[in-house]
Design a protein that fits this description.
The structure is a homodimer of 461-residue chains. Helix content of chain A is 28%, strand content 25%. Chain A is α+β, with helices and mostly antiparallel strands and 461 residues long. Strand 8 of chain A pairs antiparallel with strand 8 of chain B.
């Protein structure tokens, strides 16, 4: 019966033989004794292989395996099964070691390992890390990224369910795109062409209008963008949210604050070990709650003022570009003690046709098609935009009136026709899962936060 | 402050005005009084609109809305806000009704509703149901399918997490397919071609070998199959599982039994209302635990014997085809009192190159490449295959030796090269989420269990 490494400490003092299985993380010979560090999903364990520990048996660390590939000397990354007696050892990882009585190679690793799994991953370049993805993921620090990501997805889903949201799974194959045709991947679908969905936008809106009212989806999204930057992926995991019966984007910002607070608290509670590997801290609830909400025009002014302070001059920032994102976050951390900033009321020209208009000094409903601004927002976290969202136009006539401004025709938005038959005021947002992971852990490139990232050059493994 | 319909009953006897929002499900005029059934995400509520209830206000059911489209008479599917006083009424849904004092049309539905939302959905043909998907989903019985599906995904994930599995998200864009090139959808990926993944097979195996050991994924999978049957979708949600350190497929069958038991128990506990709409029952834990495991050759014989009983003759079933799936399930229900049957030890010719060989009378390891059978299995549930799985070949040399039988070369399985560097014995399975949903509720066609199904003809909405 196999025991996990993390449970080994409980067996110290017990004279019974126990069994562990895992990968050979490290091998060290010292005075006729072989020390093997074994790695399983729960941690690292020191195995001590000596004639003395093995008693009258064969030398335990020149074991024979169960299959032809199991014979021969022990190699790094081989999968082994070891049996022995646990003993306390303060210097060993976890304070315990296993005095090995027998060792079996289940799957012997060839000696020409193309990537050093037990090395310092911070000294490996991104290309080497990704070219050897199947091996680099074995490094405990690299693997920790994806334990964190799994925890983010779990907490995201749990929080939204607690708020009466229903999980949906929608098609990623769509007849056309309404948010920029040039950024769509084309799919040969039998005798026609379809596209990979850039987001579940129309579907989550339909599902609000279906009466579910509150929905979320965790699914891949695709952008055929040609740029290769530390913030872009061509395929990413989109954490999507949409809800009915809201007044404005401020309701959504409140929801996202609650959601992020919960995610951070869950990581702190359950993933301290993985956070520690990256020296990472998560924001506390008070700092998330205190995140400022800055209207777009003010945010641009603020970013310019910050730029002027930093380098003299200023006035060169005309949009919430990556530099502005970084400057606004630096300002918020310094002045408000928070890692999070919301920018709202983006101009219509920067938002899709379905963004709900907003105008100063008018009621929500009176803003109308002439409005310059929208009830939309971005969330910036530690210098990076992690969310775009906003209230959507739910009135079909108003949608139609907006189309010419965006070069669209009624047939381009056929999916929205259901809004003719009753649709509540609604809105939503999407969090880029890899970007959130990246910024929680302080990764230099968002590709590090994708198990098998896709970019212009990379489509394998 | 909006109140949900399900919470209305608690307000009876309270003289304070309350507010509800939702869709107009039904309108009935009776003796100068308008009865409106309002539908929100939590249920149905009767609104009583009369001059008496409205007091000295305008007649409440000829309300004015907040936007131009809000004016005019009340129509089915309009989204409204009503305020009034709750009162007990045994004949009303939920035992409560709202005596309306004011009513506002938030979003007026046009009168030419192309689909009758409040009708009997069982009398609507599949094409009409799917052509009008955005509206048919508003029917509470249709929507219940997707509350059940959300609960399946939640329970699937929760159970596996409780067994120390980690959720992964892998790429759906792959360089090539190794399980039948003809069934792949081609994607234009910048200046090259890639394919939509048929399954996360290679990735979940890599993730077991990465040291996570136990992983699961909930994600879309794609099959470019041309047939249009009640059991096929071209895009479906695959519930994937993979685990290391197993002995045989029997470990996986045990895991799947525990998993399905948990899913069924959770549905029973939390989704009784949705199950009732479909007159659906879920299997109990004892019947799942008692599901027989029948080796392929015996299963084919048994299916023939059952066919002979049913129609005389028999001997015409040469594989576990849809007829055999149905007959085996009928047999299991009659003889073992269970809805679930496992068939294992499929012949190699029916399984992919990575299936682990099995041979009678030999040890697991000795079966070798000459073996006729594999450590693989299917799960059949209520007459339909819902799962394929099995132990995989973890020895890279053995994989290479198997390739010629399958018309493959080493470069076709480049992703498996990591198995040269230590891979534990492992295996896994995938459950078709829509098929499981279909069979739990007794839906005639699997497309009914997909929010926005994709088939040869259908790529919208």
């Amino acid at each position: 019966m196999r025991l996990l490494v993390k449970d080994m400490i409980k067996e110290v003092g017990n004279a019974a033989e126990v069994e562990v299985c895992g990968w050979v993380h490290r091998i060290r010979e010292l005075g006729g004794i072989t020390f093997v560090i074994l790695r399983d999903r729960s941690g690292l364990l020191q195995l001590v292989c000596s004639d003395e520990a093995a008693g009258d048996r064969d030398g335990p660390c020149t074991a024979h395996g169960e299959s032809p590939s199991g014979t021969g000397p022990l190699t790094l990354e081989s999968v082994i099964r070891a049996r022995g007696i646990p003993a306390a050892n303060e210097k060993a990882p976890g304070g315990v070691e296993l005095r090995v009585r027998s060792l079996e190679i289940i799957s012997r690793a060839e000696g020409d390992l193309p990537y050093q799994v037990n090395g310092d991953s911070s000294k490996v370049g991104l290309e080497a890390l990704l070219d050897n993805r199947a091996l680099s993921l074995r490094n405990p620090k690299i693997r920790a990224i994806f334990k964190i990501q799994a925890a983010i997805i779990e907490a995201f889903s749990a929080y939204l369910r607690s708020q009466d949201f229903t999980e949906i799974k929608t098609s990623k194959l769509v007849g056309g795109g309404t948010e920029g045709g040039a950024e769509l991947f084309e799919v040969e679908y039998f005798d026609r062409k379809v596209y990979l969905a850039q987001s579940p936008q129309i579907y989550k809106q339909i599902m609000v209008a279906s009466g579910l009212e509150r929905v979320f989806e965790v699914a891949p999204a695709y952008r055929a963008e040609k740029h290769d930057t530390p913030r872009h992926l061509n395929e990413y995991v989109s954490l999507d949210v949409e809800m009915g019966f809201i007044e404005s984007e401020l309701d959504l910002i409140e929801l996202e604050k609650g959601l992020l607070s919960y995610i951070f608290a869950e990581l702190e509670r359950k993933n301290r070990a993985e956070l520690d590997l990256w020296n990472a801290a998560v924001p506390d609830a008070a700092s998330v709650a205190g995140a400022p909400v800055i209207p777009y025009e003010e945010a641009v002014k603020l970013a310019n003022a910050e730029a002027a302070k930093a380098r003299g001059g200023g006035g060169r920032i005309f949009d919430i570009n990556p530099e502005a994102e970084r400057l606004l976050c630096e300002w918020a951390l310094r002045e408000k003690g928070t890692d999070l900033v919301f920018v709202n009321r983006f101009p219509r020209r920067y938002r899709p046709f379905y963004a709900y208009p907003w105008a100063s000094g008018t009621s929500v409903e009176a803003a109308g098609e002439g409005a310059v601004f929208t009830m939309s927002f971005d969330a910036l976290f530690r210098g990076l935009e992690i969310t775009t969202g906003g209230r959507r136009q739910h009135d079909y006539q108003a949608l139609l009136e907006a189309l010419p401004k965006f070069g669209l025709k009624e047939e381009d938005i056929a999916g929205y026709r259901v809004f003719k038959y009753g649709c509540p005021p609604h809105g939503g947002f999407a969090i880029g899962c890899e970007r959130l992971t990246q910024k929680i852990l302080g990764l230099a490139n968002v590709k590090e936060a994708s198990l098998f990232p896709r970019d212009r050059k990379r489509v394998s493994p």
